[in-house]
Fold:
Amino acid sequence: MSMMSEGRPTQPLAGAGHSVATFTGNRALMLEEPLIFESGSAEVTGVDLEPVPAHASRLGGLERKGAIGLPGLAEGEAVRHYTRLSRQNYGIDLGLFPLGSCTMKHNPRLNEKVARLPGFADVHPLQPQDTVQGALELIHELAEWLKALTNMPAVAMAPKAGAHGELCGMLAIRAAHEARGDARSVVLVPESAHGTNPATAAFCGYRVESIPADARGRVDTAALLARLGPDVAAVMITNPNTCGLFEPDLKRISDAVHAAGGYVYCDGANFNAIVGRVRPGDLGVDAMHINLHKTFSTPHGGGGPGSGPVVFSEALAPFAPLPFVVEEGGRLHLVEEESASAENHGQSFGRMSAFHGQMGMFVRALAYIKSHGADGLRQVAEDAVLNANYVLRSLDDLLSAPFGDSGPCMHEALFDDGFLKDTGVTTLDVAKALIDEGFHPMTMYFPLVVHGAMLIEPTETESRARLDEFIASLRGLAEAARAGDAGRFRTAPHFAPRSRLDETRAARSPVLAWTPAQTAE
Amino acid sequence: MRYLPLTPEDRQAMLAKIGVDSIDDLFVDVPAEARLPGPIPDLAAHQPEMLVERDLTRMAKRNMAAGEHPFFLGAGAYRHHVPASVDHLIQRGEFLTSYTPYQPEIAQGTLQYLFEFQTQVARLLGMEVANASMYDGSTAMTEAVFMARRITRRGKTILSAGVHPHYVRAAETLCRFTGDRLDVRPPEPARSDVAELIARIDDDTSAVVVQNPDAFGHVADLTGLAEAAHAKGALLIVVVTEVVSLGLLKSPGEMGADIVVGEGQSLGVGLLFGGPHLGLFACNSKHVRQMPGRLCGETVDADGRRGFVLTLSTREQHIRREKATSNICTNSGLMSLAFSIHMTLLGEKGLRHLAELNHARACEAADRLAAVPGVEMLTPRFFNEFALRLPVPARKAVRDMAEMGVLGGVSAARLYPGQPDLENVLLVAVTETASSSDIEALVRALQHVVTQ
Structure:
């Protein structure tokens, strides 16, 4: 062993330290962190505030008595608490996050910077409109882009997320039917749809009927057309669909739905695959939400906030919700309840939420769109589709691709668990083993139309080298499973901050808030 | 294009691996008439980062930023100082660029802060359980109305005159289609309508919805209302749009609320021109299975270590589809983190101090403004927001004050169009961010506009 002159060893011993239990439970950079209720104190604060001036209370005797139970931490301790927590998370910044249908792509930091400009972030939604012309300009410009990219004549910017956008679209459809005195009760939803589709239709008071998929992973067009009739209000269809396939019959379906007096709602969750190459308006769509947090890369933030503007056809545009921005004589005007009149938007179905939508997401999305431009957005779709097909064709000899023979996929590659037959390894096991390999797992067990689904969406921001690394890893796991090495899967992940968590216990006796007794146990 | 890593050589090699000649061969399922031959005409091409930043900065400068002016707007969105560390922490990539924690082994950071957030919110609102957040306060309130209907199986909900009018409209929009009946009380700028609400509760009443402090700033004791509702088998839903008030005020839970919803943007989030904000949703344990939205719960891992997971998801759309309690999918994740960090920095001591400071500043402003000739104070009991009746239309007063560089409040007419008795009503919110000189500027501006 080589030594420094002071006697400190400068070369490690082979294999030192691997199975040592630590006194803290920490493992070097992997640090355990207590709850703030265990580490903080109601007497500690991490903020300094000005002294409270003398005043006579106007609370009318409604003052709180007794403790609330909110611990504080000094600033440094708070920074450390949340920094330590953050390190127990996987994010796009760390690596490949191929969560099918969720579109986890790089989140550009310019977008974060501009969203924080005081002129956008520190503006109140009810300021006089002359003081927020720049904010209205931004909303207006983003709206114009969304309309042009979809070839749709109108857009509602208010919806707060994809599912809220679905609600917006379906409410417009109901309002349109009601306006012509045409009560319809049924919405057709393909069985491969996101769960939000049937939930939204039911939320709006419709009865949901499921349409099966065909052997090629598309909606069964014949079954759908056969079901159309005077009771069908709308068809909700996802395109590209949740199997990652383009629905080639959509235009034909749209024409038939329209002929039968219904409307076509398109779930735009997968718009990333076709942006700049296909415009949903050219396929006869009447309403479609656009997840700004998917196609236009506003950060997912651990589960939100989202933003779900909805584009509308000419037929549905009059029913769009309040508020919206219009240009009048060179000045932008936000049309709210006060100025909405029978002439301009008397048929609007009303307001969906307080204020005007997810401004913070609009700023990021517009920065993303301007950075890419018309040419770059088209390249986004092409590279997203190229990457997904590369993954599909690099794995389909070893994994089972249920629709692999029916031509190219779009932005995501779908596999089922056929290749795991008789191995004792499940889709869940493969996902957990991928965690050990340093990847976020793919979407699993969705869509429901194939068994043990694994839905891989690499997105356009992954390099070929990253994809090759992922492909090699998944091939290695598939081979290990087929070679009978089920043991390594069942206990995976082995190197994550936690091993598999007991979800049954969590649901059977729910502990949804911290109580002092928990620590005492 | 700076965000796209594939080179032309990569693309060629990958097409070869796939076994096709060109990228067009991957779009063969698109009908020929819907294929665009090239970039959409008349749209700009990609731009360097510097130029995009320059363009957006130009737009931002066209807006009057609240922090650069004496500022007194509230009406459902409040401006508070957010400590610098909050924004730093929520921008850590492991938070910012993570997804819904469906793989809990590598999402304990998100799950633990959600568990802490749920606990903080439940305690602040005085309830047993809070969820992992909703889109905003208005959508949370509509969901609460539906939840009450599922619990009581009754069809009518009474909405107090003091509920934020945007919240009322959002509920009306959905109820028009769901068949839920709403009994909406007309606005009452000069008093709380709790007594009238009690008289309207009947055997078909599912819930009474009341906001505290209300849209005109009134604070009220809701204990009697809760008792009256419960006596008839109805639920009390309390809306809180200014959560800082709960540093001082008795919580809705203490007053007998069954469901509490709120807007949490006051802590950590900021104004953001109205979104994204943060919906709070809390109830007591016995009703938790009727709750909408995500819930995080404690459990253990295979090695017996404490950990957290999303739980009770059999209520949710991805499992129950058309039978779900709501169609909501996302929560307001990053905003709930910002709220939770700000709350952790404040702690109970800081929150109380902050609330007292807000109240003291509002008292100072109220006394000064009420002394302006012709101005009448309409809110005798308030926290940090109150209503004034001006001798002139408030809408014009607000515009004129803005021209003088003072963002002086919200005119009630903007929120309640077509109500002549509210034309002259001005809503003024005063937080810790308003200095005495800001208050002085507001008094002078108001004096000027009412004497014009």
